[in-house]
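Incident log, structure service

09:12 report received: a user says their structure output differs between two submissions of the same chain.
09:20 pulled the input from the user's history:
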Amino acid sequence: MTQNEIKHKDRQLELLMNLDRIRDTVDIGRTPHSMFSAIASLLKRFFSADASAIVLIHDETDDVEALSAISVPDDMALTLCKEAMRYDRPFALQSSVWAHSLAVRIAVDSIGIVVGGFFVARDGIPFSQDDAELLTVAESQIDSAVMQARTMWKLAERNRELEAIFQIDHIRDSSPDEQGLLNSFCAVILKHFDATFCVVFTERDDNQDIIVRGNIPPDSLPKRVLNRLRVKLTDVQSPQPIATPSELDQYTLIGAPLRVSGKSIGSIIVARTKAYSHGDSRLLYAMMSQIDSAMVKHRISRQLEQRNRELEAIYRIDHIRDQDSELEAMLHAVLDELCSAVFCEMGFIMLYNEQEESLELIASIPPDGHVNEDYSEKVKQFSMQALKTEDVIYDNAVEDIVRSIVAIPLILNTNIIGVFGAVNSTNEFGFSADNRRMLQAITSQVDTAVFERLERRRMRKVLSRSVDPKVLEALLQRADDSVLAGERVVLTVLFADLRGSTEWAERTEPDEFVETLNRFLEEMTNVIFRHGGTLDKFVGDEVIALFGSPVPMEDHAYHAAKAALEMQQIQQQLIVELAAEGKELPVMGVGISSGEVIAGEFGPAIRTDFTAMGRVMNLGSRLCSEASGSQVIISSVTHEMLNDRFNVNKLAPVQPKGIIQPVQIYELLGEK
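09:34 re-ran on a clean worker, output below:
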């Protein structure tokens, strides 16, 4: 063996020992990149090269697993190393910028595939055949280093994944809300990927998206860029590189979906300056599998909390409703509860005016004690829209003083009551689906209560002049449509009229006439109320009363008869008292009839009264006309209903005006 051959063998041995030393001294806990960097440096020094590089390519995905380049840019090194992968023995690069180069692939014989390539290059002395043989020897050792590197890499990747999963699990158990949860996830992602920034897009059932940016000022990502990034993620099914928008061309992007049971709940983009490896994709996949389940768990917990809050709110509203307070007091109490439940600056209730087809702001809880005009205009606008659509409407992007608003119509069966709503959520994203659901829950408890109190108000207005106050309060406890709604009912009607009142009015001074007549009407009304009757109306000096409606009365004919007799008695006493004062009061005739009528609230919206209509009413009026002074005339039906409990005097049948057949009548004398 010649001296040159011995020297060549010594160089081969030295190279093998150096490669073996590099392979054996690399810390298993560190990234294999350090080993490849050491190999690239050794090759450059050993071959007196100006540049060297080595690349490892994933055998399934063609992703770059490792790239180490010495004195050559990464992109050029990657291109030349991929060219080297075509050569099964040392060969000069075709696209090298250096005068001389040697390149060869890295092939793992045990699995029979090419996994990478490397090269050395220089401008000085050309590479010799000995250099080519030496490079072949290097490749024989580097392939085993690749297998070792992959084993180390897998262990390191698993450790990264386990560490990330542990951190995510800790975040999942400690974050109070979704925003905080995502912020913490971003911090973990930025750390593990050594990334510049990340963007998380979330999708929620209420179409409200949360965009969380990590480690980058919000204005650095304009909305148009965010929208383009979101579109790029639309069809992404697993972690993968994302085409970089021109505004972010200094970064490399990787994106991944957030999915649970095949349903998308969001997506994420991570940006950094260096390329992503297959291991990075695996890590992001592992992290996403934990993050998406953590988000779902958090949302389920939030939904349970929301349901509990709704139940608690319903309980408190139910308590407010059962306090039987007046309408305004109840509405203000409800609005206080609303502002606490949906976290808003102002709650409002508008009532519908059917006559004018308009809305009136009845109650509100404004931020400063009074309703701003801008608030009022927006509230009216949205309230009318809610009534037209008969559905919840909301807007979380309103301008000026009103930033967000939600309105829900108050409609009970077919009765339009008004609109219930809230203005300016304290949440920066406006009123969420949870807020709207809470509002609907409160409304479901309020609509009936508001309707009942409105009915009470209307009944009080209509009936306060017609029934005894105690009876009125009993009626108000019913507070539904049936009290004032038209219905066919069997009752007894009483008509009482002064005889000769026209002549009396002509011969009496006006002030004395008014005073005496009012005294007479008051006394008659008191008698009617004492016997449970309803004052229908006064027509001049005529008094009309109903027995049996709106308050049901089983023995209405009996109570009407008792009232009529007492009215005549009180009338006689009043005549005596007034005579002693030098005043006059004519005698009174009374007519009573019984039968079916239509009773209810009659009249236009501006003025209504509770009254009854039908032949029985006409007959009662006619019988009153037939009665002489101090006489009570009853119809045959009334006589039958009295069931022989009163003394009567049967009179000759009469032919009242407007009634075809003669009518048998009786004079009521007194109770037996």
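09:41 both user submissions now match this output. Likely a transient worker issue. Closing.
09:42 reviewer note: The radius of gyration is 48 Å. The domain at 175-303 is CATH 3.30.450.40 (Beta-Lactamase).
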